Amino acid sequence: xxxxxxxxxxxxDPHGPIFERRNAVDYHAMGLPRDHWHAGMRTDIVxxxxxxxxxxxxxxxxxxxxxxxxxxxxxxxxxxxxxxVELRHTPMSTxxxxxxxxxxxxxxxxxxxPGYQHLGYYKNIRMxxxxxxxxRQVATIFKSFYDEHHQHFRAPGIRLGPAHVTYxxxxxxxxxxxxxxxxxxxSYVYEDARRWDLK
Length: 199
Description:
The protein is of the alpha+beta class. It has helices at about 60-65, 75-80, 100, 130-150; strands at about 5-10, 20, 40-45, 55, 75, 105-110, 120-125, 170-175, 180-190. Strands 3, 4, 5, 6, 7, 8 and 9 form a seven-stranded mixed β-sheet that branches. A two-stranded antiparallel sheet has the order 1-2.
């Protein structure tokens, strides 16, 4: 069995074609955000920002204008140039403190999702960009982490992967700087019970 796919080129995306699935319904093209189904679901925070640390927050238009909105931006809304991020064209240079700017345009992002800390996962990010592009970088890094390591879980923690917390349920709330690395504060949405595995 084979599926025919056609490359679709988006001029603003320098990373090449995106192959669309055959017969896929693109609700996003009809005006629905990719995370429309998150509305009204329960949410739990992972990687709480340490008090007193500097943070960059990510918002959607709905999270600012609607008290019912789910906080943060779904990673699926960050992937394509940060299109789901409010004020996505804002330069990071206007949002960062002077001492952080003085560290240069490159930094490291640490992913310490509970149950996966043993991996010691760090990736480079560029800070000389816009907030939308930074969201795209973070989403791309987390998607690679998820795809490569969701099976490397060590309890206790929150298991990632099919039948557990999937990538499309995760929302970027902020990244915070601990003096050495940028760290994630994200949340995930769920219907029934929090996901915490002890074994």
